[in-house]
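INFO batch 0412 | record 1 of 1 | parsing
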Amino acid sequence: MMKSKILRAATPALCRHWLFTSSVLILLVCGCLLGVRLQIPSIVYALLTSRPHPLLQCDLLFMQVVMEKQLAAVSLPRLDQSILHLEPRDVKAVALHGLNILLLGVCEVSVIVPTLNEERYIQKCLSSLRKQNFDGRFEIIVVDGGSRDSTVNLAGSVADKVIIYEGRPVGDARNFGAKLAESSIVAFIDADTVASRNWLSSIKESLSCKGAVGVTGPTLPYQGSGLDFLAYRVATGWLQKFSMIFGLPHVAGFNCAYRREPFMRCGGFEEGRTLSEDLALSLKIRHEGRLLFNKRMIAYTSTRRVRRYGYVRLAMFYLLNDAIFALTRRSLYYPQVR
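INFO prediction complete | emitting tokens
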């Protein structure tokens, strides 16, 4: 039996008119219990007309409550909104989830892990998240891009939510996971990356600082050589810190965390890109507050890309990409490793 709920993005079914009265009552009661500000006129309109409508914004907790219980059909995002339709069985599930929040407390951090054919690495990644030195409640959301191997099944035994979101770049997948997050902090780590034991506690510590909106830390090679360690230390340690000092931050997307509200306000990772989506976000969100570097927020990533392409070729590739991005806001196509 899989622990998580596996959801698939799909076209939503139409609401039935006979659900109108009960659905409005459910929304009002749950909104009061969970502290959600509901857009009542829009909700009434959607239920009366039975047409796809932005019933709830994706950053509302109620949306996430229903999603977690696999009670809603969610369309692929259109105009940066997802559409939710209620079904009769929503009543029991929402009530139970509300009780769960009251008893266990609110989720403090949502960790989003994008995947695509990562059966070789995903178990180590998720296992490292479950072994955190962290006293608070957190959730793991895996967003899969349409894996053809056993990634989804492996993730389902550990993650809290597994979302199938096919054919989209990694930035789009991260954003989609953030929309379904329960907490006010969204953290991102890649499937071929392992979190250190203090990864989550470091995130919470940094984002508790006044004015902080984002944080990153060193990303070191997993089972790499001395040369690998030095290269990664320079690239994800010293250069990231210097980029923040000079006001042109580049926070790596495979090891970072943000406060959800400013993250969503900026539009998240720039969508449609296979490269530099994290750089584009860094340059936008710097205007929302402080970006921090926490040396205890260590993650260990695979060196598979280096092994395939070599340091010289990758260094030239990244330099050329950064120059193109600075001049045109465009980026190169990221070389594949799968």
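INFO post-check: Residues 10-103 form one domain.
INFO record closed
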